[in-house]
Automatic annotation (TrEMBL):
The keyword Zinc applies. It comes from the Bacteria. It is found in: Membrane. Pfam families: Cation_efflux. Signal peptide: none annotated. The lineage of its organism: Bacteria, Pseudomonadati, Pseudomonadota, Gammaproteobacteria, Alteromonadales. PANTHER family: PTHR45755, ZINC TRANSPORTER 7. This is CDF family Co(II)/Ni(II) efflux transporter DmeF. Keywords: Ion transport, Membrane, Transmembrane, Transmembrane helix, Transport, Zinc, Zinc transport. The chain crosses the membrane at residues 27-46, 58-75, 91-112, 124-147, 168-188, 194-217. The keyword Transmembrane helix applies.
Length: 301
């Protein structure tokens, strides 16, 4: 390999070490899959449509956790692959987006099932269903605690925000919510006799899940579609360049990983600075920029 080739090669490892996250998601995946199997079996045996539906609902979340694990594995496997121009940092956002779509489908399925049960009420073996629902809630709470510390730590840090992990956490919260609503509905149905409260709770839970799903889709898609940073930030760069007698003809700044951005600028000046000096100006305003490309031209007077 020639020296000229080596000079322009540099690290594009803009991802985050997800070893801890992978371990946590694996634990939650197996817990969720275990309860899914239990609920489907118990729902079939007791004739509880609510429990059976919740079991399949947890099954979709198990599939979403597999998406999360795949995203972490893929990012790690290709972290030093030069074929990816800006590294594999966006894989986490892709995993988060896919999981969010799955979350939305789960909510839609819950609404359809709930409407069907409002129209045609089903007989439920309340005692058996309540016991299994409480077991499901306990496992969901444990899963939430496993993911909680990471999620809250990253929610308060703009520099290391893992959309993939956030998606997994929202799936656990969705499971916890549906378990609580199912228990409330089953208790009311058993002791008060209001059977229609069960599908009504299902609709309420689905609407909350839709809200979480939409927020995550909006957040992750902005990164996947290379949404620019705020205009006010670009204006700060423009002002700084003007102070150096330099005109910006074109500028693009976008996110390429959870804590990294890329920037491309086209500049002109009658007294141009060195490229390294321009890069230092950009880095001072945009500390998260890891990749800067600058086109510099002599300003024609």
């Amino acid at each position: 390999m020639s020296d000229s080739t080596i000079q322009w090669q540099h690290s594009h490892d803009f991802g985050v070490d997800n070893a801890k996250n992978t371990h946590k998601v694996k634990i939650v995946f197996w817990l969720t899959t275990l309860i899914m199997t239990l609920e489907i079996a118990a729902g079939t045996w007791s004739g509880s449509m609510a429990l059976l539906a919740d079991g399949w609902h947890m099954g979709t979340h198990s599939a979403a956790f597999l998406i999360t694990l795949f995203a972490y594995h893929y990012a790690k496997k290709h972290m030093n692959n030069k074929s990816f121009s800006f590294g594999t940092g966006k894989v986490n956002y892709l995993g988060g987006f896919a999981s969010a779509v799955a979350l939305g489908i789960v909510a839609l399925m819950m609404i359809i099932e709930s409407i069907q049960r409002l129209v045609e009420p089903q007989n439920i073996q309340f005692s058996e269903a309540i016991i299994v629902a409480f077991i499901g809630l306990l496992v969901n709470l444990v899963s939430a605690l496993i993911l909680k510390d990471h999620h809250h730590h990253h929610d308060h840090s703009h520099h290391h925000h893992d959309q993939n992990m956030k998606a997994a956490y929202l799936h656990v919260l969705a499971d916890t919510l549906t378990s609580v609503l199912a228990i409330v509905a089953l208790l009311i149905g058993k002791y008060i006799g209001i059977v229609w409260i069960d599908p009504l709770m299902g609709i309420v839970g689905a609407m909350v899940i839709f809200h979480w799903s939409f927020g995550l889709i909006k957040e992750s898609s902005a990164i996947l579609l290379d949404k620019s940073v705020e205009t006010s930030t670009l204006e700060k760069v423009s002002i700084a360049m003007n102070e150096k007698n330099t005109v910006i003809h074109d500028i693009h700044v976008w996110k390429i990983a959870s804590s990294h951005q890329s920037a491309m600028l086209s500049l002109s000046s009658n007294k141009p600075l060195k490229i390294a000096e321009y890069k230092a100006i950009v880095k001072e305003i945009l500390p998260q920029v890891s990749h800067i490309s600058i086109e510099l031209n002599k300003l024609k007077i």
